[in-house]
């Protein structure tokens, strides 16, 4: 499960720290995203991890997934990061690693993961991020105890309540890209069942709330969330009834497959189920774009004719 990183780790990522050059690179490169994982971080590119950095007793260890190599093998810097120059070497090789991943994705597409990173960027760091009502604090979230995985977690903070830090609700987002993703072992019904098992547990809910709040604060410290804090801002407090959102990307409106699946869904007891209908085009998330189960069924019936 993703979680906040240590005070030492966050300081090393901030200005003047051992890893600060990497943070500056992420801040200036909209194709990169930082995910906090407790004792390590992932830097994502096109939905895949381009860099994994773990906390060690004497510095950090960096690695790149060599399964991405498709022919030309890029010479990687030494794994150990104990000086700023060691971090600089990894930042310098990122363009080559991007080319490697581009070649890999050309034959092994991961459209769902790529678009989930885009959705996170649009709500966190794009020019409209301060106008949206949702912030994404993590992608590729996993609960090992329950065996459940989600594409994104974050918080909902209505635009009219931005001066009240207690009005943040936990949000879990699952992206479904194309009709082939609607059913099966990772389908909509299975995800709802998994989440009912997790969110019915108050201890798990509270742990999730804390994780989201901690991640949001650290992303703010690293200037990786475009959010205009009010003058007396202290800290976001995440609480209340969770909201689970299905972000359906590139649905074929002539297909009845999604309608048939949604017709069988029963309103969950422990969370608000929502389906994201984009505001014209784009992934900027607003409360007005979130359809409840009844409204979503009605929309699908209208589209199906």
UniProtKB/TrEMBL annotation:
<protein>
    <submittedName>
        <fullName>Uncharacterized protein</fullName>
    </submittedName>
</protein>
């Amino acid at each position: 499960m993703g979680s906040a990183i240590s005070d030492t780790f966050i300081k090393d990522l901030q200005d003047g720290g051992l890893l600060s050059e990497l943070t500056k690179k992420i801040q200036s490169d909209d194709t990169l995203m930082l995910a906090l994982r407790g004792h390590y971080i992932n830097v994502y590119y096109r939905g895949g991890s381009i860099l994994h950095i773990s906390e060690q007793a004497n510095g950090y260890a960096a690695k790149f997934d060599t399964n991405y190599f498709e022919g030309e093998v890029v010479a990687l810097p030494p794994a150990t990061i104990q000086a700023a120059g060691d971090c600089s070497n990894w930042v310098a090789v990122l363009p080559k690693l991007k080319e490697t991943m581009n070649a890999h994705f050309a034959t092994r597409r991961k459209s769902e993961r790529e678009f989930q990173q885009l959705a996170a960027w649009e709500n966190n760091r794009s020019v409209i991020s301060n106008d949206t009502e949702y912030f994404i604090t993590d992608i590729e979230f996993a609960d090992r105890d329950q065996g459940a995985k989600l594409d994104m977690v974050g918080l909902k903070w209505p635009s009219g309540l931005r001066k009240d830090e207690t009005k943040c609700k936990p949000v879990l987002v699952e992206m479904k890209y194309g009709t082939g993703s609607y059913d099966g072992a990772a389908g909509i019904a299975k995800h709802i069942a998994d989440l009912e098992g997790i969110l019915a547990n108050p201890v798990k809910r509270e742990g999730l709330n804390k994780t989201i709040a901690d991640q949001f604060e650290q992303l703010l410290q690293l200037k990786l969330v475009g959010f205009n804090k009010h003058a007396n801002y202290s800290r976001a407090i995440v609480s209340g009834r969770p909201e689970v959102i299905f972000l359906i990307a590139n649905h074929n409106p002539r297909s009845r497959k999604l309608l048939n699946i949604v017709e069988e869904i029963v309103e969950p007891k422990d969370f608000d189920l929502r389906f994201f209908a984009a505001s014209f085009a784009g992934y900027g998330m607003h409360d007005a774009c979130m359809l409840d189960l009844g409204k979503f069924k009605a929309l699908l019936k209208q589209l199906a004719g």
